[in-house]
Amino acid sequence: MDSFWDLFKPEELIRYGGLVLLIVIIFLENGVFFGFFLPGDSLLFTAGLLCYLGVLNIELTSLILYIGLAAIAGYYAGYWFGYKTGEALYKRKDSLFFKKKYITTAENFYKKYGGAALILGRFLPIIRTFAPILAGIVKVKAHIFFIYNVIGAFIWPAVIVTSGFYAGKLIPNALSYLNWVIVGFVLITSLPIISSLKKDKKSTEDTTTTTDA
User: Fold this and answer.
1) What are phi and psi of 171, to 5 degrees?
2) What DSSP letter does each residue of the chain carry, written as one string?
3) CA dist., res. 36 & res. 93, Å (int)
């Protein structure tokens, strides 16, 4: 069980698997539908902090570059999956690694922000994983998807990894506060998703009430 819970501890993941495991997780979380539960933002912040501390023996710019490339590849995997499965994904039964409400939430977010959702969605769990899948389902043009994919893939780590790096530089013993920072990330990034799910539920209930009436 200790090993299982380490899956949700960014510091443990990086110390165990280094840059390779970090890149694999980023790839999975950015488009492979069962990767939505993996740590994203908190993992990037931790990577930036550990980069400053020397645990990750790599330059900051190179770290951002590798993460960006993994994020681009992950989005293309999600796009291809959505393109190939199409509407069949909506008929898929709920399971441990898939809930229809996740893709519905991503769909509503996409309708609201359009192509920019592929950039903004990088900063939100669930949306980050399912936005490219949805883009594949609605068959967003390849060149449009490429532009938003690349921009978002580098803005995301540039902001969060750099924040972690300079947190280590400016705050003494920053690693001691890492758990609190991770909790903060989880709360902040989850609030928009929770709000969206509540709106979806209320909308469904209102529709059901109207139909019954």
Assistant:
1) -110, 115
2) -HHHHGGG-HHHHHHHHHHHHHHHHHHHHTT-GGGTTS--HHHHHHHHHHHHHTSS-S-HHHHHHHHHHHHHHHHHHHHHHHHHHTTHHHHSPPBTTB-HHHHHHHHHHHHHHGGGHHHHGGGSTTHHHHHHHHHHHTT--HHHHHHHHHHHHHHHHHHHHHHHHHHHHHSTTGGGGHHHHHHHHHHHHHHHHHHHHHHHHHHHHHHHHHHH-
3) 17
Q: Which two tokens stand for residue 197?
A: 């799910």
Euclidean distance between CA atoms 48 and 62, whole angstroms: 11
The pLDDT-based confidence of 1 (bands split at 50, 70, 90) is: very low
- Tokens encoding 135: 């883009």
Distances (CA, A) of 185 to 42, 83, 180: 6, 31, 9
Average pLDDT over residues 106-125: 82
pLDDT tens profile 129-155: 888 888 888 888 999 999 999 999 999
pLDDT digits (tens, 9 = 90+) for 71-83: 999 999 999 988 8
pLDDT of 9-25, one tens digit each?
788 888 888 899 999 98
What does the alpha-carbon distance between residue 35 and residue 17 come to, in Å, rounded to a whole number?
Answer: 17
The average pLDDT across 91-103 equals 72
